[in-house]
Structures are given as C-alpha cells and as structure tokens.
Amino acid sequence: MKRTDIKSHCPVNFTLEAVGDPWSLLILRDIMYFGKHTFKEFASSEEKITTSVLADRLSNLERNGILAKQPHPTDGRRDIYTFTEKGLGLVPMLLDMMEWGTKHDPKSTGHRTKAFVSRIRKEHGSLSREVKSKLRRGNVAFA
Question: What are the distances in angstroms from CA 94 to CA 1, 13, 15, 54, 61?
Fold first, then answer.
C-alpha cells in the first residue's frame, strides 16, 4: 500500500515528498523546457517512462497542487497539464538543476544553450521571473 503521510516536516523532505522522484522532475522539465502538456507528449520523452508510472506521477503532481489538469481545448479525449502558481515556485530550483547538470556533465544538452545557462548564474532572480511569466502564458523557458 502506498504511503500517504510524510516522513517529517523538514522543508527538504517536504519538497522531496512532492517532487523528489526523477520522473516527476522530468515531467516538470518537459513542461518548462520543451512545452509538453499532454500524457502522450510526456510518454514520448527519450527517458521512456512507462504509462503506469506516468499516470501515477501526473496524479501525484496534481494532488500536491503543482500541476493543474484541464480538458484539451480542441480534443476532449485529452487533458493538458500546466504549472499552478505553487508549481511555478519550483522554477528557481529547476533552473539551478539545469545549471548544475550542465556544469558537471560534459555531455549535457545544456551546453547547446550556453547563453541561457550563463543567464541562470548571472541573472537568477530576473530570469526566474521571466520564465514564470512565459509559463503562465503557455510558452517555454527558451521562447
């Protein structure tokens, strides 16, 4: 049976309980950096998440108030997932993760966006606000 309580009220643990598994973070990445919003788009990511795990993680992110699910505007058979205001609060952390991963992985795809990664270091606060604004409008971090 799946746990529904949290291990402790440590702020780091609270964050990990909400988004600390790799699949949840990759879903958030897909929305923020690649503009993915549907189950099918998330399932097509190169990491190859299984449909059962994807459904579970989307449900968890929605239950934790990080993502909102709405019917697709043109296809009633699909739903779209977007950041909530609570979820947008994770943008600075996701930017930090991109910078850290680029710095420590010589093969990171972040090396293709050096100007963006450099901005994370130099303009973290203003870049976070800019990315949040873009996501609210349905855009991606790089657009």
Answer: 30, 17, 13, 19, 15
| Structure confidence at residue 6 (pLDDT) | 63
pLDDT of residue 15: 83
Nearest Cα to 28, choosing from 78, 82, 70, 69?
A: 82
Q: What are phi and psi of 139, to 5 degrees?
A: -95, 180
- Is the pTM higher than 0.85? The answer reads yes
**What are the chain's domains?**
1-83 (1.10.10.10), 89-143 (no CATH)
SS3 call for 78: coil
Alpha helices, H only, 1-123: 11-19, 22-34, 39-43, 51-63, 85-88, 91-104, 114-122
